[in-house]
TrEMBL record:
It catalyses: L-cysteine + O2 = 3-sulfino-L-alanine + H(+). This is Cysteine dioxygenase. The keyword Metal-binding applies. It comes from the Eukaryota. It comes from Coemansia aciculifera. It is an enzyme of class 1 (oxidoreductase).
């Protein structure tokens, strides 16, 4: 388990500083169940001030996509750090995070987060909507509920940095009116990168069902 230090952290001036500090904070354990580490990682995400020169090489976008997912660092398999590029007016489905911690920092543009309660009988209950602006940080976990992220601008793309611990490649998405769930399998496609191990995350053409969850198949999506 990583040790949560009370000593002042080194300044996080660049994306590489942030990656190094995250690796040091989480060690070989990822976020796990230690809330002190969760708070420390959130503080690190806050402390980095977005500079496009740091991340533009990862901000790969495919015209016509809902959004793209680009790997910045794989965290030795205990977490991963991705940059997502959101097209104008595009949004994710309502989704869970497969039991993982999700930390999100907005690097450019604006996004809206809609938080939902887990479905019980029928339609999902919208609990709140929160705007996210450049350099703001949000935290999400299945214990909190479900959410949907969207770019409200019809003229400007948005770029966000996401930390998932542990990494996952399957999640559930939900129909807002019925609460019905489908399961998505995401695959990785390597991209040319200026930093090692950069990949683009995109969804497979369809769903691969997990027989233990007995979920129906649905159209392909990309999840955050």
């Amino acid at each position: 388990m990583p040790t949560c230090t009370t000593e002042p952290m080194l300044p996080v001036k660049t994306m590489q500083d942030l990656v190094s500090s995250l690796n040091e904070a989480m060690g070989n354990s990822g976020l796990g169940e230690d809330l002190r580490t969760v708070r420390q990682v959130k503080q690190l995400m806050h402390s980095y001030v977005s500079q496009s020169d740091d991340w533009v090489q990862h901000a790969i976008y495919h015209e016509g996509s809902r959004y793209t997912r680009n790997l910045v660092d794989d965290g030795n398999g205990k977490y991963n750090l991705l940059i997502l590029v959101w097209g104008e007016g595009q949004s994710s489905p309502i989704h869970d995070h497969a039991g993982s911690h999700c930390m999100m920092k907005l690097l450019a543009g604006e996004l809206d987060e809609q938080l939902y309660a887990w479905p019980r009988d029928g339609a999902l209950e919208l609990r709140r909507t929160a705007p996210l602006r450049t350099n703001s940080v949000a935290y999400m976990h299945d214990k909190i509920g479900l959410h949907r992220i969207g770019n409200p601008s019809l003229t400007t793309r948005a770029v966000s940095l996401h930390l998932y611990s542990p990494p996952y490649n399957m999640c559930k998405t939900f129909d807002e009116s019925t609460g019905a769930a489908v399961q998505s399998t995401c695959t990785a496609q390597k991209l040319t990168s200026l930093m090692a191990s950069s990949q683009n995350y995109a969804c497979s053409p369809g769903f691969t069902a997990d027989p233990t969850m007995a979920l129906p198949q649905g159209p392909a999506i990309t999840s955050t």
